[in-house]
């Protein structure tokens, strides 16, 4: 889950340079708990991806996510966070981040839908986002979604102890731009653990505006590039949460909670290892 830099001054945000540190290293016990929190998130997102269909509302998805998170012994990370009213962020087509679920938002065939959610379990958070296509979608939407997911994994491939945030950012930027897509710059990934947002900010472009933190084994990062089909610029709707592309072009996002290891990484929110009931 990203946050608006002009609304909040929490760690992990662009421009919050004074509070940037090296990131929190977790103990083995804490990592085990984060695996469980992240597995809950992965399960919920996998189930939503399998169930979403035209005619549903984003409120339907939110209700389902909250029910499943609580059934698995966790609480929704997002609900009530800085006043956010729901358990998921749901964004359709040109909506970028922080979309508020609503009974009035009906999902239609051809839509590109982003679902971001988190679970708080025994003192720790997991955080992840997916983009899914609903029904018959355009080739342009399919390509954007595919490249957005590839871009996330290009960044994750750079995760290992001794590498730096700029290694992640450079891989993300190069892959996205090589396919002609822009990266939304004012939102970043972040550390995640006891707090939903921790240091450091995990940026998605090469920049000197934030510290180029060296990665250490035991750090847990939420890596989450956002790609637009058109301009990188966005605006916030009057609800003060929902962000949309300025030119109304499509937007796609994927996010994983990732553990830094000595030799590489572990994707804690990996949906491919979740078993169906």
List key phrases describing it:
15 strands; four-stranded antiparallel beta sheet; five-stranded antiparallel beta sheet; single chain; 277 residues; Creatine Amidinohydrolase; globular
Task: Describe this entry's structure for a reader.
The structure is a single chain. Mean pLDDT is 93; it is low at 4-20. Helix 3 packs antiparallel against helix 4. Helix content is 25%, strand content 23%. Strands 8-7-9-14-15 form a 5-stranded antiparallel β-sheet. Strands 1, 2, 4 and 5 form a 4-stranded antiparallel β-sheet that branches. Strands 3-12-11 form a 3-stranded antiparallel β-sheet, with no helix packed on it. It has a single domain (17-272), classed as Creatine Amidinohydrolase, CATH 3.90.230.10. The chain has 277 residues and is an alpha+beta fold. It has helices spanning 28-51, 58-71, 139-156, 165-178, and strands at residues 75-76, 88-92, 95-97, 112-121, 124-133, 182-183, 189-191, 198-202, 220-223, 226-228, 234-236, 243-245, 251-253, 256-260, 265-267.
């Amino acid at each position: 889950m990203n946050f608006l830099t002009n609304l909040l001054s929490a760690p992990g945000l662009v421009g919050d340079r004074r509070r940037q540190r090296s990131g929190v290293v977790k103990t083995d016990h804490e990592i085990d708990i984060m695996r469980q929190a992240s597995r809950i998130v992965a399960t919920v997102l996998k189930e939503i991806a399998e169930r979403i269909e035209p005619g549903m509302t984003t409120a339907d998805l939110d209700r389902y996510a909250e029910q499943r998170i609580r059934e698995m012994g966790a609480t929704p990370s997002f609900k009530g966070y800085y006043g956010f009213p729901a358990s998921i962020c749901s964004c359709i087509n040109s909506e970028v981040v922080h979309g508020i679920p609503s009974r009035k938002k009906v999902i239609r065939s051809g839509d590109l839908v982003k679902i971001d959610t988190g679970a708080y379990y025994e003192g720790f958070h997991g955080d992840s986002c997916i983009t899914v296509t609903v029904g018959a979608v355009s080739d342009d939407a399919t390509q954007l979604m595919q490249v957005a997911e590839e871009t996330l994994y290009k960044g994750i491939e750079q995760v290992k102890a001794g590498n730096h945030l700029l290694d992640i950012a450079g891989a993300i930027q190069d892959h996205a731009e090589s396919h002609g897509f822009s990266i939304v710059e004012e939102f970043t990934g972040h550390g995640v653990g006891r707090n939903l947002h921790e240091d450091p900010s995990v940026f998605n472009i090469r920049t000197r505006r934030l510290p180029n933190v060296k990665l250490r084994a035991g750090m847990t990062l939420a890596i989450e590039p956002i790609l637009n089909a058109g301009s990188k610029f966005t605006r916030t709707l009057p609800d003060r949460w929902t962000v949309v592309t300025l030119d109304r072009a499509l937007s796609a996002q994927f996010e994983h909670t990732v553990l830094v290891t000595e030799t590489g990484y572990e994707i804690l929110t990996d949906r491919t290892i979740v078993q169906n009931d």
